[in-house]
Specification:
This protein is 30% helix and 24% strand. Helix 9 runs antiparallel to helix 11 and helix 11 crosses helix 13. This is Alpha-L-fucosidase 2.
Length: 809
């Protein structure tokens, strides 16, 4: 696999500290009276969330995670609450959601759609086509570990923080002249949560620790230093929980005494304590829950116990920094950045606090590293952090936007490895989805609809209005192709190719000829979560050939053609895919000048919908089928669509709009949406995205949107500062990735390139677009370039070559 470990710095000596480039930039100008700092000024851009008080609620607590497991750290003084999650703890057990009645009903549903008998078609789908049961299983909380500190009284000098550069939370405070410090991190190398308690006076550490859980569970003593929590996941839709779990907590004290009693872990008079927490479940795969949770949890705990705290911390930081440290971003800073994080959000003053945007960007990267690492599962609707047995939307994988949005920052912000749990999920879905393809459609290949869960359900679920959408698996397949576009990794493409091929085969089997137009279209389907007619007392969404489907399939067939050519495979199927792509319904412009959401230009309420879903602009982002340079009429229609859709929207919807406006090269509108995202109604005190309630996709979509404002790489070109807002005239980034196998560093001043470096991993040709003309050198020598249009240079690269970009014609 390609090595992505090198820390990015500009060749001219730009270094990195606290996640920011140390460059000598010009003073920023701000409309506020806040004191501004120079871009890259040492110590002026801390990547830390901090608060002067303990968390009073879950959305104030700070998340730690290592992919498979995580915790929310509250930072209390009298009591510390660690809310615990393990990412395979799902309600219910292995289950086949497919409906044996579905295939017989499919022809009639299609006929009713063609005849525009929408209500009848949707009702029949609800009765005969939906999965059994119609609701999928929720992802569930494991429980809490509470640390109670006897005698804790009045405290002063309190500070609670999360250092994004180290992935460590720290709490410090003073009681009776003694300073107490508590550090918490989740170790990927050792697969444990680590809590380190110290004080500046010997013998001052004492506490009682005990597990609790809303699950069916019990606590027990394992040995003189270790306690356990054993339980089983909850029931769902009448199906009993089958996932058994065990959590262990062990105290390693320096000085003092450790004992256990009645399920409690008791530490008295210690100088320092390392508390290790291990969690495991019996979940081995979506088909098998026969694992030994107790053995697995003890294995990790035993290994971690053998390692001193400093070794645990060093290995954790080494592993984490290898990913996080690849990218830095500096947008300048002001004195507002010194305030507690929640106060900065509450001020709603992004113009006067540009560092908040950089912090939000890096927080998204932190969350992705923390919630999507092997051996864990893909990040779900809440990443891994959930304190409920019945979380909102079951905290599943919603694959009509939310799951895919989780991974928008993965490639572009240099976190390629975080894709791996998602790719494992897609492999599972291809297996269960092949069964659904046969049962529901009588088709080959595989299909997944708008939701899936820990049991990899691929049948349509919820209600027909939401669930009869067969294109979720196709969208997921495009993340496999995206991986190749960024890395050029043919071995990975070869592994993933059967998944893409299976999706293509399903649609070649199931696409229907629209009797009015002759286009190939999906039927039945819908534009996700948006109705097109009121039929009596019912809002109907079911239709044929919604625009989003056509855009996704156009990219799916194109990706398959290209992958097939790269790997020299399936030439016959390649030709079929090419022919089918040419017959798909095109993206159309409607009567209001908008991108049509459906095959027909429906009017009335449908055309004026204010839904937070804007699925028919999928071709603008994440695809590049709509482009201001190449398809200006469609781009103008996309702009009109966004205007008609209005400002309504949850956090994730606003995040998507940042990306839309950036792709339209409208910096002011992109920045406006970012500003609207970073307010208390949509960003919690701990910077979690609010739908509301919490959904993590908005964090990831926001990080992606900031990246798109600074660097775009679709359409076979790299576009620097594509949608740079006026509020960020000077700044710098390093380590961002561009399609084609490039890594980019950049410093800009006055909105133009000041100095940059492009590193070529694959030796491909570069088409570089910049705000003003640039020159290109390598090793101090001029590089021959073509200039096909103003502010565009085209030049060849060599593998591992580095190319410096400077202003000039």
């Amino acid at each position: 696999m390609t090595d992505y470990s090198r820390r990015s710095v500009l060749a001219t000596g730009l270094g990195a500290a606290a996640g920011s480039l140390l460059v000598a930039g010009a003073d920023r100008a701000h409309a506020s009276a806040a004191t501004s700092s120079r871009v890259g000024e040492p110590g002026a851009n801390p990547l830390t969330l901090w608060y002067p008080r303990p968390a009073a609620q879950w959305l104030e607590a700070l998340p730690v995670g290592c992919g498979r497991m995580g915790a929310m750290v509250f930072g209390g003084v009298a009591t510390e609450r660690l809310q615990l999650n393990e990412d395979s703890l799902w309600a219910g057990g292995p289950h086949n959601y497919d409906n044996p009645e579905a295939l017989a009903a499919l022809p009639e549903i299609r006929r009713l759609v063609w005849e525009e008998k929408w209500k009848a078609a949707q009702n029949l789908a609800d009765q005969k086509f939906m999965g059994k049961p119609t609701e999928q299983a929720p992802y569930q909380v494991l429980g809490d570990l509470a640390l109670t500190f006897p005698g804790a009284g009045e405290f002063t000098e309190y500070r609670r923080e999360l250092d994004l550069t180290r992935a460590v939370t720290t709490v410090t405070y003073l009681i009776g002249g003694v300073r107490y410090t508590r550090e918490v991190f989740a170790s990927k190398p050792d697969q444990v949560l680590v809590v380190r308690l110290t004080a500046d006076k010997p013998g001052s550490i004492g506490f009682e620790a005990a597990f609790t859980s809303p699950q069916s569970s019990s606590s027990a003593v394992v040995d003189a230093r270790t306690i356990a929590l054993d339980g089983i996941s909850g029931e769902t839709q009448g199906r009993p929980g089958e996932v058994r779990f065990r959590a262990l907590a062990r105290a390693e004290a320096e000085g003092g005494a450790v004992r256990t009693d009645a399920g409690k872990l008791i530490v008295e008079g210690a100088d320092a304590v390392t508390l290790l927490i291990s969690m495991a479940t019996s979940y081995r795969s979506y088909k098998d829950v026969s694992g030994d949770a107790a053995e697995e949890a003890m294995r990790h705990l035993t290994r971690a116990t053998s390692r001193p705290y400093q070794v645990l911390l060093r290995e954790h930081e080494r592993d984490y920094k290898e990913l996080f440290g690849r990218v830095s971003l500096d947008l300048g800073t002001t004195d507002i950045a010194k305030l507690p994080t929640d106060e900065r959000i509450a001020r709603r003053q992004l113009d006067a606090d540009p560092q908040l945007a950089a912090l939000y960007f890096q927080y998204g990267r932190y969350l992705l590293i923390s919630s999507s690492r092997l051996p864990g599962h893909a990040a779900n609707l809440q990443g891994i952090w959930n304190d409920s047995l019945t979380p909102a939307w079951e905290s599943k994988y919603t694959i009509n936007i939310n799951c895919e949005m989780n991974y928008w920052p993965a490639a572009k912000t240099n976190l390629i490895e975080t894709f791996e749990p998602l790719f494992d999920l897609i492999e599972d879905l291809a297996e269960s989805g092949a069964r659904t393809a046969k049962t529901h459609y009588g088709a080959s290949g595989w299909v997944a609809h708008h939701n899936t869960d820990g049991w990899r359900g691929t049948a349509p679920v919820d209600f027909a209005f939401y669930g009869v959408w067969p294109t979720g698996g196709a969208w997921l397949c495009l993340t496999l192709w995206e991986h190749y576009l960024y890395t050029g990794d043919e071995d990975a493409l070869r592994k993933h190719f059967p998944l893409i091929e299976g999706s293509v085969r399903f649609f070649l089997d199931t696409l229907q000829v629209d009797p009015k137009t002759g286009y190939l279209v999906t039927n039945p389907s819908h534009s996700p979560e948006v109705g097109h007619h009121e039929d009596g007392d019912e809002n109907v969404s079911i239709c044929a050939g919604p625009t989003m489907d056509m855009q996704i399939l156009r990219d799916l067939f194109s990706a398959f053609e290209q992958a097939s050519a790269v790997l020299h495979r399936d030439e016959e199927l390649r030709e079929k895919a090419r022919a089918a792509r040419e017959r798909l319904a095109p993206t159309q412009i409607g009567h209001l000048g908008q991108i049509q959401e459906w095959l027909e230009d429906y009017r009335g309420d449908a055309a004026l919908s204010r839904s937070r879903h804007i699925s028919h602009l999928w071709g603008l982002f994440p695809s590049d089928q709509i482009d201001p340079r190449l398809t200006p009429e469609l781009a103008a229609a996309a702009r009109r669509t966004l205007q008609l859709r209005g400002e309504a929207g949850a956090g994730w919807s606003l995040a998507w709009k940042i990306n839309f406006w950036a792709r339209l090269l409208d910096a002011a509108e992109a920045y406006k949406r970012l500003s609207n995202l970073l307010i208390p109604a949509r960003t919690a005190p701990n910077m979690f995205d609010l739908h509301p309630p919490f959904q993590i996709d908005g964090n990831f979509g926001g990080t992606s949107g900031i990246t798109e404002m600074l660097l775009q790489s679709h359409g076979d070109q790299i576009h620097l500062l594509a949608a740079l807002p006026a509020q960020w005239p000077d700044g710098a980034f390093s380590g961002l990735l561009a399609r084609g196998g490039f890594e980019v560093d950049l410093e800009w001043r006055g909105g133009d390139v000041h100095r940059g470096e492009i590193r070529s991993r694959l030796g491909r040709k570069v088409t570089l677009r910049t705000p003003a003309p640039v020159t290109v050198t390598s090793g101090g020598r001029p590089v021959p370039v073509e200039r096909p249009e103003p502010n565009v240079v085209v030049f060849d690269t060599r593998p591992s070559g580095a190319y410096e970009v400077r202003p000039g014609a």
